[in-house]
Amino acid sequence: MDDSIVENVFGNAVIEKAMQYAEHEWYASEKNVMHGIDGNGRYVDTPDITWEGEEFDCGWWKPGQLNIGIPYGWGNASSLEDFDLGIAEGKFAGNVPEDTSRFGSHECVGVDCSGLVTVCWNLPKKIRARDIPEIADLVDIKDIRQGDVFAITSHVMLFKEFTDEEKSRVRIIDSTRSTGKVSQREFSISELFEQGYLVYRKR
């Protein structure tokens, strides 16, 4: 099979999985809310509607109501099945600590930016954004394909598509503390390059 066809099949599968995370529907209860120390002594702040942070305003999901999108979970890479099971078992729905020097909590379910790439790229173990250059190759922006990523040491985002004929703007899918969830966002390529982002393709 032609390599480009293989890559397109892979990229389509990656974006399909990422969209499942962005559009996943779920219900939470008060048991899934946490603002304090978990059983292992790790601090948890779920991005529910009661969350109030100093740096980010990303509290969004509500107990007892339909929620859409997997919540951001610092250090987590939950499958959709594990997320639903965790919510049913009373695990905490996401974690958006403003102090990320703290370790993540295993009592939470959700995905952080690299956790989303881990599950969408079907990697054998959870990676960090800074690990991307070790498992992926640099790609010129003119050769970018669905399923490639924009990455810096602290964040990684999946490329979905260009949004204009000039190919100067892109739509990405990521999980970030600024939104508190997996979602689609739009950026200008120049803005991303100014921030130091590079394009990578899974090796």
Put the structure in a nutshell.
The chain is of the alpha+beta class.
Question: Overview of this structure, please?
Answer:
There is one protein chain. The protein has helices at about 5-25, 80-90, 115-120, 130-135, 190-195, and strands spanning about 25, 35, 45, 65-70, 90-95, 110, 135-140, 150, 155-160, 170-175, 180-190, 200. The longest helix is centred in the N-terminal third of the chain and has 21 residues, at about 5-25. By secondary structure, the chain is of the alpha+beta class. About 25% of the residues lie in helices and about 25% in strands. The protein folds into two domains: about 20-115, no CATH class; about 125-200, endopeptidase fold (from Nostoc punctiforme) (Alpha-Beta Complex).
Overall 3D form: globular
The residue fraction in helices comes out at 10-25%
Q: Would you tell me the overall average pLDDT?
A: 94
Largest beta-sheet characterization: 6 strands, antiparallel
Please indicate the percent range of residues in DSSP E strands (runs of 2 or more): 25-35%
Low-confidence stretches: none
How big is the Rg?
17 Å
Which strands sit side by side, in order, in the main sheet?
A: 7-12-8-9-10-11
Summing up helix and strand content along with how strands pair, one would put the structural category as: alpha+beta
The structural domain count equals 2
State the distance separating the first and last CA atoms.
Answer: 17 Å
N-to-C series of helices and strands: HEEEEHEEHHEEEEEHE
Helix count, per DSSP?
A: 5
Care to count the β-strands?
12
